Amino acid sequence: MASQAEFPSRETHRIASLAGNRLVVSSEGLGWRHVYASLATEQSWSATVPAVDHLCLAYCVAGSAHIRRRLPGTGQTHSADLRPRCFGTIPPNTESQWQVAGAPQVMLLYLRRTLVEQVVAEVYEGDMRRAEIRPILGESEPLLEQLALAVLSELRAPSGTGGRLYTDALAHTMAVQTLYALGDGVIRQRAQAAQSARISRQGVQRVLDYIDTALDQDLSLVALAGVADYSPHFFARAFKKQVGQSLHQYVVQRRIERARHLLLKSDQPISQIALLTGFSGQSHLTSVFRRLTGTTPAEFRATGLRVI
């Protein structure tokens, strides 16, 4: 199953690169497929931001700013104070004019256009009017905030230790929640019905079997949902509800169990075992292995061999 390419920064507004702004960290190079994220410390700035294809959510992490935004296409002008834990949106396919007075630290989250369209097609029968997001500024959205903080934690982690499967799940959940919370024409009963459907027992077993045969591969949420014959947008939530672990946690656990087996039952180098169990390299395996077991792969192998 083909893997989608990374969401590149060139498809964003690149606000972090404006004069005076300082990029702290971004998802560039992490292989994230459906969401692009950047964290930047901004200074007062004004600019016309060109239209891009993708919806942008701006989440204020620290500091504050008074913002004036004009959407020339509609003539709408909005002014508000952006404070920590509040959101703003930059609608897709829309040029916007901005005046920012202050020094906030802002995380920008871009949801890939095709992902949003897939949610609309599946949940709202392809009615693209449902994808029209309210142009909010300085508003709180508690459920979206939980997802944004999860993305921020992953963004700050060394080499994105949660992996692409984890960020896939976050992106799909965020797309659904964004449409649910901010979509102008969303029919909430339809979204709630889609979220409550269960994966069949056979579908769950197919996924568990598939994961065990593909631990060395770059597993994607879309691929696993396809194995289960279930919506990728609600798959991670249904999997956790029915299996008792998040999809990401389950896959990592199985990878560590396979690594433990190979460390004791083979003489392959740890760098090779890392690749055979789906980690990006020996340092990635070591980091996750130590976090979950309290020891390193090398220490585990040495101790285990002495016991044997």
UniProtKB/TrEMBL annotation:
<dbReference type="GO" id="GO:0003700">
    <property type="term" value="F:DNA-binding transcription factor activity"/>
</dbReference>
<dbReference type="InterPro" id="IPR018062">
    <property type="entry name" value="HTH_AraC-typ_CS"/>
</dbReference>
<dbReference type="GO" id="GO:0043565">
    <property type="term" value="F:sequence-specific DNA binding"/>
</dbReference>
<keyword id="KW-0805">Transcription regulation</keyword>
<feature type="domain" description="HTH araC/xylS-type">
    <location>
        <begin position="205"/>
        <end position="303"/>
    </location>
</feature>
<keyword id="KW-0804">Transcription</keyword>
<keyword id="KW-0238">DNA-binding</keyword>
<dbReference type="Pfam" id="PF12833">
    <property type="entry name" value="HTH_18"/>
</dbReference>
<dbReference type="InterPro" id="IPR050204">
    <property type="entry name" value="AraC_XylS_family_regulators"/>
</dbReference>
<protein>
    <submittedName>
        <fullName>Helix-turn-helix transcriptional regulator</fullName>
    </submittedName>
</protein>
<dbReference type="InterPro" id="IPR009057">
    <property type="entry name" value="Homeodomain-like_sf"/>
</dbReference>
<dbReference type="InterPro" id="IPR018060">
    <property type="entry name" value="HTH_AraC"/>
</dbReference>
